[in-house]
Amino acid sequence: MRIGILTGGGDCPGLNAVIRAVAKSLMRQCQAEVIGIHDGFAGLMAPEPRSHPLDWEQVSGILMRGGTILGTSNRANPLGNPAHLAQCLHNARQLGLDALVVIGGDGTMEIAHGLAEQGLPVVGVPKTIDNDIVGCERSFGFDTAVATVTEALERIQTTGQSHGRVMVVETMGRYAGWIALEAGLAGAADVILLPEIDYDLDGVAQLCRERETHQRFTVICVGEGAKPLGGHMTVERRIEGRPDPIRLGGVAHVLAAELQTRVQSEVRATVLGHVQRGGSPTPFDRVLATQFGNQAAQLVMAGQFNRMVTLHQGQMASIPLHDVAHQHRNVPLDHPLLQAARQIGVCLGDNA
Ligand code: F6P
Fold this sequence. Notes:
- This protein is an alpha/beta fold.
- Helix 1 (about 15-30) packs parallel to helix 9 and helix 5 packs across helix 6 (about 180-185).
- The protein has helices spanning about 15-30, 40-45, 80-95, 105-115, 140-165, 180-185, 200-215, 250-260, 285-300, 335-345; strands at about 1-5, 35, 50-55, 100-105, 120-125, 165-170, 190-195, 220-225, 235-240, 245-250, 265-270, 305-310, 315-320.
- It is built from ten helices and 13 strands.
């Protein structure tokens, strides 16, 4: 067998761990040739496909490395143009691929589904620090991002305490609040604001004022997709030509400016940005990525295509790619972590 593998969309801690597991599993169990495609779908739809065979040495020693040894792209979408789609399918045939393993987020899974519908045998592996892929309880990269944000919140709290400030820390996560919620809880944030719950600005300001008289400082952890009641999300930029052109960012500055007119203490904003996506994966993410990679190899060997591997009730499983495309997994409003946060007195912005 000859199996292609590519990483699509934004980078994420654990991608190399998946590449390693897919390749090692296929090489050991069915002596497959594994072909690494460069730069995601950009490499597969180029006039000459960009790729190289992966051998055991190349996939050894990469478990703990951040980023992706294959490179990635979130610009290339072969489904956006029939000529690109035809080129992609032609290149897959030219490379002699019996199957393609695609590691990526919801946008990449959508493309994977489209290719599978065109007859290319595809297996998807979910990746995103946002943890927002439908049908998957936990995607690798999320745990690492949460650890990074948690450490940042701890460090920020020091300055908040010393200077008696309101410190607003913005996390990534797009339209889902998973990173802000888990890291906010782990990093002892006093206020956690999520895209799923519109915040009441005056209520948040009131809490900050109350804390001014006792604790003196407040730490607010805000997901980049959060918005005030009756307001809108903060878009940092539009990048035309991308499958998802909207880049959120800057809500921390917007919120800090509004709060500054309502509280006495100094208010400061920190946008953590891509630091959340970089570096070595946590042990949890290394293990999850290894399981996902191995599971993808098992699906390939069993001839089960047009599916994405998942974690379901703590077990490896798979679901049709069709069920994943065009959707996001948000924090449900009855999620136990929201309840726990409220019960210990964390403000979620809605005064509930
Ligand atoms: O989906 C992962 C993610 O890091 C989001 O949390 C963030 O909104 C987006 O990607 C940023 O994308 P880019 O690196 O293209 O700016």
